[in-house]
Amino acid sequence: MKIEGNIALVSGGGSGLGAATARRLAVGGARVAVVDLSKEAAVAVASETGGIGLGADVSDAAAVEAAFAHAAEALGGAPRIVVSCAGIGTAARILPRDGALPIALFERTLHVNLLGTYTVLSVAAKAMAALEPLDTDGARGVIVNTASVAYQDGQIGQAAYAASKGGIASLTLPAARELARFGIRVMTIAPGLFETPMSADLPPETRAALEAELPFPSRMGKPEEYALLVQQIVENPLLNGETIRIDSAVRLAPK
């Protein structure tokens, strides 16, 4: 599917992977709605891309529906390209030394990462299904979700995070199969170690140790490289129902 001339919506678009994706889609000729929990951050990115910035909690269905409706009204139609980048990174042991059980943190992580992704996907699918097909294949749109290599390589302390990202990866194929009759593709990207707000505060020695574990290239990924993969997924019609790791061939150690 072509990017040029289409409408896109990027959740978590106020920073990191989402902001880079919004910029790349805009450069490709899309009209982009940037959605973020921080409306201020979303508006700032939108001011660079010529789109609109909206504030919404992705795990709140009413807020997501309102964001899609606002985007459709402002940009002239429902988005055919939807990318979910919103999420949180959490770390907590199942049995921490202080004896506390972090069940609330587990619940919150799933609520934001997994439920939020599903909410965006379901609202996007409903909007896309009502659109006219673009080509002889009957394509109506593409949805790209964000997991993490932790869904396969979860480290100690990542039980909640890995579970949330594993749910996103597991959601991909059944969603793609169900939405195929509407001409909607569903893909997931599983990033490894990337330069994002989550990694920005790492001490230099910790960053160096992490990068030393990356086979090649031995550096953190750039958000623009994630965005490039989004572009390739949108443009290649046979990419559907799969989770793609983008990770320098890393396999995370237990801790």
From TrEMBL:
InterPro entries under this entry?
Answer: NAD(P)-bd_dom_sf, Sc_DH/Rdtase_CS, SDR_fam
The record's section on SUPFAM superfamilies has: NAD(P)-binding Rossmann-fold domains
Q: What is this protein called?
A: NAD(P)-dependent dehydrogenase, short-chain alcohol dehydrogenase family
What's one GO MF term for it? oxidoreductase activity
The beginning of the lineage is:
Bacteria, Pseudomonadati, Pseudomonadota, Alphaproteobacteria, Rhodobacterales
Per UniProt, the keywords (alphabetical) are: Oxidoreductase
Family statement: Belongs to the short-chain dehydrogenases/reductases (SDR) family.
- UniProt-listed Pfam families: adh_short (PF00106)
Gene3D superfamilies the record matches? NAD(P)-binding Rossmann-like Domain
Q: From which residue to which does any coiled coil extend? A: none
Can you name the source organism? Paracoccus saliphilus
